[in-house]
Every structure is written in C-alpha cells, then in structure tokens.
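Narrative progress, year one. The postdoctoral researcher (J.K.) led the effort to move from monomer predictions toward full complexes, under supervision of the PI. The following entry was the first complex the group processed end to end, covering 480 residues in total.
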Amino acid sequence: MRKSNYFLFYLTGNLLLLLFLFAHAFFHETYAGPLLRENSELVKRLELSDLCLFTEASYTRHLTQADLNTPFQDYPVCLEHFPSGSILMPPEMLKKPYGKID
Amino acid sequence: MGKLIERQRNILDFTLSSLFRRKGKNTSLFLVYTLVVFMLASVVFFTHAIKREASIILKEAPEMIIQRSVAGRHDLIPVGYLDRIRNIRGVSSARSRLWGYYYDPVVGANYTLIVPEKYAHGPESIVIGEGISRTRLAYPGDDMEFRAFDGSMMVLQIRDVFPAESELISSDLMLISEDDFRRLFGVPKEHATDLVVRVRNSRELSTIALKVSERLPDTRIILREEILRTYDSIFNWRGGMMVFVLVGALLAFLIFAWDRASGLSQEEKREIGILKAIGWETSDVILMKFWEGLVISLSAFLAGIIFAYGHVFFTNSIFFEPALKGWAVLYPAFKLIPFIDLSQVATLFFLTVVPYTVATIIPSWASATIDPDTVMRA
C-alpha cells in the first residue's frame, strides 16, 4: 500500500476519534444538567459563594471573599501559598480602587 | 482535478519516505510537538471547564454579601446592622450568615463550617463533605471531636455525608447547628460572620450597594456579579506563573522547529540537490517541505488534543494534580464536565500549528533555492 494511504488512514482515525470526543462532551454536557441543577440548588440553599478548589488558605478557599490583607492572616512571613497562589489570578474586584483617588 | 490530486499524493508519498529515512530526528520532533500541544490543550480544556461549571453553579450565589472590616481585617458583624439594611427601599430580605474555618490538627486540614438557614439534624450533629470523610475516614454514625475556643472538647456526631458529585462545592464543608457553632467558636449571639441580602429588582443592586456602604461605612460589599467575574478571570490561562511556563515552552519549541528546519543536514541538502538536478522545480521542493510540515504538525496537533482530552476528562487531570494540590491536605476529587467547543480547538490550532508553519516557512524557501551543482559537488 502507498505511504500516503497510511497517513490518510491515520488522519481519518484521529479525526474520527476527535469527533467521538466531541460527541462524548456533548452527551456528557446534556446528561450533566440535573447534576448541575442539584449543585446550583445546594449553592442557593447554603448561600455559598465559592467553589472548593484550594483548601490551604482562606484567600484560596474563598476567592471571592479575598481582600488585599489576607496573605498576612495566615502566619508570619507567609505572603503566598505556592503553587496555587501562582496559578491563580488575583480577583478582578481587588484591582479596582475603593474610592476616587483624587 | 484527478491529476492534481495524484501529483499531491506522489509528493506526499515521497515526503513520507523522506521523513522515515530520518526516523530518529522526526520522531523526536513529533513527540516534542505533541507534548507542547498536549500541555496547552490540557490547560485550555481544564480552565474552560472549571469556568463554565462555576458560572452555572454560582448563578445562585447570594446577590449581595456584606462583611465588616476592623483595622483592615474581616471582623464579626453586629446582627443589629440588619435593621439598617432592611429599611432600604428595594431590599426583599436580609439575614445573617454564620460560617468559619476550623483547623483539624489530626490531619492538618482546614474545614469550612457553615450554619444553614434551616438545619434539620438537630444539636450535636454535623453533615460533612466527601473530602472530609475521605481524609478523616469518618462516616455517618461516627463521632468527631472538636476543640472549642475555651479549650473544652466537643463531640459531634456525623449524620450525613454530601454526595460525591457535589465535591466541587462541598468537599470541605461541614454543616453544623447555630448553637454548636457559637459554642465552638465563642461567637456571641448578637454577632454573625457576615450578612446576605436579596433584592427585589436585580437592576437596583448597585444603587442598594451604594446606600448600604453609605449607611455602614465600616463594611465592604461583594456582589454576585463580582463572584461570577472572579471565577471568569481567575483561571485566565494568560495569568499568573502559567503564562511564563507555557510561553517559555512554546518559544523553546519554536526555536527547536526553526533550528530543525533551517539546519539542513548534508544528506537533506544532497537530496534536494538531486531532486532539482533531475528536474524538480523550486515550487515542487517548497510543496514537499509544506507537506513535511503539515504531516508533522497535523499529526502532532491531533494526537496532542486527543491525549489532552483524555488527561483532563478521563484521568481527572492526573498530571496537574500535584501542582493543584499544593499545600492542601484536603483536596477535592472532582470530575469536570467536558465543556468543549470548536472555538477552543481552533484557538489551539492557531496557537500551535500556525507558529510552527511560520517558523519553518522561511527555512523551507531557503532550502528549496539551493543550487544543485554546489550541493552535489560538496
């Protein structure tokens, strides 16, 4: 068989696999509806504000409740938790001033 | 048309034979390329899935949270503040929230304790998240000991565990009754952690927030929009340390690709020289180089994307886990819902295949214009 045929088979195989993954994502997303609703309901019932992603410090556990002085609350000379503090961006709301500067 | 396709296939046949002749070099390029695509795609899939899930789940988060700060730190808020908020026009309800952190020295983990509005399990009981249950090996019916603020011991019985499917929000949660919470942390009756406000018309939210901040100047206000925006921006893949790691990897790869494409070996130069001597045009050689680039980049791109999908959604980002766990003893074992779309794949394509093509096109042209006579005499 010609070498180009092997390559075309490889490409077709990969594209089919990619198509299968898209289908997998689509069905998963469709069937995840009730689960997302349940979680959303739990958020409403318990009045939660954050996802539980990083549990090591208050400012990584409750990202939306973070403020500019939280790093000092953990323990002396600890300004940053590595690596979660490096992966995460500081919340948008912290970057805006609380009032007019001038 | 048939002739044109046949010509392309002939050149592709020749290109593949030429690639297989330099197996080691091309396999290493393919593997490095696949790894770069895999890394980028894993980050894009992971962050997009988290952002989408957060935006759906947190749509029901409190509309407005009011926290008090004293000397620059979050402090307990007097429950009496509620009366000053309730009489603001447009406020439909306002209530105090009790929540806090408890450090468990047994396992070295932090739990988030919450007092729900309606707690059905009665005093001296708790409901825990799956993460706590897994870390402490604690199940319904077991007792858990807590050291209260005054040094006394409190024993609370586990009544229930949150379902594993909700780990993304409940892994470290512990529901507790109001009396037990106050007894554990010594929070007086007239104080709470913060206040939660609901409004009649969400368009009035910013006006009401302004009124609250005027009436209670020692407080800060967090709006639901800000909560949602935080999760939208927090995992921005352009942010933080990740950008340096990824841009560094991408640049290293581009230099590698450029070097490989420009530093033609003697054998490759001879091959081009012979091809030109037997009648190949410069355009044919460029076409061959184009196919060479396409075979490698497309193969690596597809393989990288497929592996990244498997990595993020089938193995729960097993390679990211050590980095994401960080200092955390209690880490949620959540399974992300695969939210992917064509735009993500297209972005990845432009981030990986296009730079590679650009980096190799000039060296390809340079190699195609080699003088056959000079090369064959060398």
